[in-house]
Amino acid sequence: MGLKKLADKVADYKDRLKRGKASKIKPDHVKKVLEKLRKKVGDLESDITSTKNVDKKARLKRKLGIAREHVERAEWLMKKIN
What's the helix, strand, coil split of the chain in %, to 5? Predict the structure, then answer.
């Protein structure tokens, strides 16, 4: 699953929490998304170290920042629904 889809899921969960629909959010679903995001962070970190292309490295670093931000959001959401 791509970073955009995972980020959309986290945003959807956060929106549902704001609307008071948090009881319908299953912690297992958030946990699964969080695991995928963490794997994506690891993959991006390894890609950054293995690439020599400066432009590609910069693009991957931006993606890594976004992925880490969404990991933080998903962790925050887990705390709220547990």
Answer: 85, 0, 15
pLDDT of 47 reads: 95
55-74: buried (b, 16+ CB within 10 Å) or exposed (e) per residue? Answer: eeeeebeebbeebbebbebb
Whether pLDDT at 2 is above 80: no
CB atoms within 10 A of CB 44: 20
- Determine the Cα–Cα distance for residues 77 and 38; give it in Å rounded to an integer: 15
Q: In the numeric block, which tokens belong to residue 81?
A: 């629904």
pLDDT tens string 24-71: 778 898 899 899 999 999 999 999 999 999 999 999 999 999 999 999
Q: Are 67 and 41 in contact (CB under 8 A)?
A: yes
